[in-house]
Amino acid sequence: MKIAVLPGDGIGGEIVAQAVKVLRALEHDGLRFAMEEAPVGGAGYEAAGDPLPEATLAIAKQADAILFGSVGDWKYDSLPRAKRPEQAILGLRKSLGLFANLRPARVHEELADASSLRREVVAGLDILIVRELTGDIYFGEPRGISTLASGEREGVNTMRYRESEIRRIARVAFEAARRRGKRLCSVDKANVLETTELWKQVVIEVARDFPDVALTHMYVDNCAMQLVRNPKQFDVIVTGNMFGDILSDEASMLSGSIGMLPSASLDAANKGLYEPIHGSAPDIAGKGVANPLATILSAAMMLRYSLERPQEAARIEAAVQEVLRKGYRTADIHTAGMREVGTDEMGDAVVAAL
Ligand code: IPM
Ligand code: MG
C-alpha cells in the first residue's frame, strides 16, 4: 500500500511522525506500507517556491492514500495568496476531487472532564460532521479584492453550489447515517441564502432514496448554538464547505480538545487524504508537546476507508482508548491526577498498547 506522507508545517512533522510510527508497528503483522514523504505548505514553498510543488502533487496522485499533517505559519502571511501554505491543502482537495470530508467528534469516556462543557452534556457523544470540501465560497468565482472607481477597495467571494455537487455529498451523508444512528441533519441558511435554499431542496430530493434515514434541517446559527446546548441530539450533520469548517472546530471542543479530532477527505472512489482537523499550531511547534492522537486516529480512518483494513483501524482506535484509560495526557487534554506526556511519548504509548 502506497502512502504519501505530507507533514507540512508547524507541529505537522512531529504529529505525523507518531502516526507513521503506529503504522510501522502494524507492519509486524504482515502488512506493508510504502511511504513516500514530500514537502507541502510553507515547507513546499521553501523547497520549491510553491506550497503544492508539482512533485508533491504527483506523489499524492500516485498513492493509495495520503497522510497529511498541517500547513500554515504566520511568517507566510505577507506572501501573495497563491503562495500561502493554505493553498496546498485547498489545491490537494480540489485537484484530487476530495469532496467528502468526514469529521467524527467522539468523546472518549476518559476525556469527558477535559471538555469545557459539563460532563453530562458531552459524555458518550458520538457525532459525524460530513462537510462538502471542494465547492462553496471557498472556490466560487468571481473572487478577489479590487479597487472601485471611487478609489474604495472591495472584497468579493462567491457562495456557489451546483445541484450535482450537493447531490453527491448528500448521498455520502445518507449512506453514513444509514450505517450509524440513521438520523441526518442538513445544515443551511436557507432563510437568507439562495445557494443553501437549493442545498435544502436537493437534500430533500436525495432523501427519497433513503426512507430509512430520518432527515431534519437546521439553520447554521441555530446549529452552532445547539452543538453547545445539547450536542447529543445529533447523529450525522451534513453541510457545505464553510459552515462545515466552522461547525467542526466547534464540535472538536466537545471532545475535550481540537487535538483529538481526525478526518478523512474522500473522492468518489474512496481514495482519501487523512489529516487532523487542527492546524499547524506554530506557537507550540518544535516543543514536542503537541497531541498526536488526532493524526494517529486519522491513520486509523485511512486504514478503514481507503486501505480496507477495518481490523487494523479498530486496533489503533482501541490502543488510543487504552492509553487514555492508563492516564496518558498531552498538555491540551491534561487534567489533575493524570500523567502528562509529550508528543513522542504519547506515540510510543500507542505503539506499546498496540
Ligand atoms: C480545515 C482548515 C482549512 C480549511 C484551512 C487550513 C485552509 O481550517 O481543514 O478545517 O479552512 O478548510
Ligand atoms: Mg478549519
CA distance, first residue to last residue: 20 Å
Radius of gyration: 20 Å
User: Portion of residues in helices?
Assistant: 25-40%
Compounds present? 3-isopropylmalic acid, magnesium ion
For this structure, what is the CATH homologous superfamily of the largest domain? Isopropylmalate Dehydrogenase
The helix-strand sequence is EHEHHEHEHEEEHEHEHEHEEHHEEH
CATH topology of the largest domain: Isopropylmalate Dehydrogenase
**Beta-strand proportion:** 15-25%
Strand element count: 14
**Helix and strand composition category:** alpha/beta
Largest β sheet strand count, sense and barrel closure: 10 strands, mixed
Question: What is the helix tally?
Answer: 12
Overall geometric form: globular
CATH 2nd-level architecture of the largest domain: 3-Layer(aba) Sandwich
Walk me through the structure.
- By secondary structure, the protein is α/β, with parallel strands linked by helices.
- It has two domains: 204 residues, Isopropylmalate Dehydrogenase; 110 residues, 3-Layer(aba) Sandwich (Rossmann fold).
- 39% of the residues lie in helices and 19% in strands.
- It is built from twelve helices and 14 strands.
- A ten-stranded mixed beta sheet has the order 2-1-3-12-11-4-5-10-8-9, sandwiched between helices.
- The longest helix is centred in the middle third of the chain and has 16 residues.
- The model has no long low-confidence stretch (mean pLDDT 96).
- Bound molecules: 3-isopropylmalic acid (IPM) and magnesium ion (MG).
- Magnesium ion (MG) binds next to helix 9.
